[in-house]
Amino acid sequence: MIPLRDNIPPRTFPWVNYTLILVSTLAFLIQVGTEDGEQWIERLGMIPARVVDPDAVVEIVEPVVIQTPFGMGVSQKQREALPSAVTPWLTLLTCIFLHGGWMHVIGNLWFLHIFGDNVEDRFGHLGYLIFYLLCGVSASAAHLATDPGSTIPTIGASGAIAGVMGAYLILYPKAVVFSLVPIVFIVQMMVIPAPIFLGIWFLLQFLQGTAILGGAAQGGVAWWAHIGGFLVGVTIAWLLNKFHVARPPVQQRRTKEEYLSSYL
Fold this sequence. Notes:
Elements: E1 2-6, H1 15-33, H2 39-44, H3 48-52, E2 59-68, E3 71-80, H4 91-94, H5 102-123, H6 125-146, H7 158-171, E4 176-183, E5 186-193, H8 194-213, H9 223-242, H10 256-261
Helix pairs in contact: 1-5, 5-6, 5-7, 6-7, 6-9, 7-9, 8-9
């Protein structure tokens, strides 16, 4: 499901959310546009084995194109990872501003655009910034705890954005999300209640995460970072809401029928 828009208008300009999107975009453009940009992944990404033992020699396995009797093929070689540019524990934070490809960064930042402005509206600008960074670090920690021996650099804002989505679920339980939903070979436009949209998303992350713990290949995705970030976001939003620390919700809201008719 691809979210296009929700029906909650923000009261204030979400400058922190847009700044996070801008910083992540600039970091990615530097990654792909400079000669040493790819080195950022190893130098600023989180490598769990390095965090657990900063003095250990971390070996990176990378693909190598080779010539075979049957044509070009792919082999693997091991090499020592580049040294970390910061203290290994700090990479739990720096890794959330890096991405592995165009679809990775576009998908992450689009979800942040859809859900982040309304969470910032409830938490305030400074509160939202602290919340986002805390969710990102917590997500990295969740991945570290579930795969401490991994030598694969972990990057991406997915865990922090999962925390934003978890907070949105608690703060706006009656919201709806206008979405593109692929059904077989047909893409349908649907208005989906936010709890259903976010609940399905979380269920998919949980199923993938438990499959990893059962021994299935993870395919390069840190599923438990998503799960950890989401649960931290839910917990923080629930506590702030319960003790009336967060701003009251926006009262102006279009109905589901008015919202759907505006797109028809």
